[in-house]
Amino acid sequence: MRIKASIAIGFSVALAACQTPVENGATDSKVEASGMETQGEHLAVTLCSGCHAVADGEISPNAEAPDFVSIANREGLTRQTLGNFLHDSYNFPNQMNLELSDEDADKISAYILTLREP
């Protein structure tokens, strides 16, 4: 069983290394970007899912909170514009009593952009 798990993990790592980086501020390290996106997903579930649908196919618990897929697919959205919004908690609506570190804002931005439809 361990051999199958090792093969699956190795295949996953190799597949991740073949992916192309995200435009507008992509990192040079694809493995680092993948880790950043995964960490962003965990942060989104922990910090944002009380109001927002953070994964594809979910419905936002708060009807006024847009789901992350809709946010990711907004016209003109870039890593920079999303990052700027998340870095500045004063931009948030009053209902979002949330303050993010710059590092967490970058991770959540990276995750949200993985939800962009082709």
TrEMBL record:
Keyword Lipoprotein in annotation: no
InterPro entries (UniProt xref): Cyt_c-like_dom, Cyt_c-like_dom_sf
Keywords: Heme, Iron, Metal-binding, Signal
Coiled-coil segments: none
Superkingdom of the organism of origin: Bacteria
Signal peptide range in chain numbering: 1-16
UniProt keyword Cytoplasm, yes or no: no
Residue ranges annotated for the Cytochrome c domain, each copy included: 35-116
GO molecular function term, any single one: heme binding
Protein's name in the database: Cytochrome c domain-containing protein
Origin species: Pontixanthobacter aestiaquae
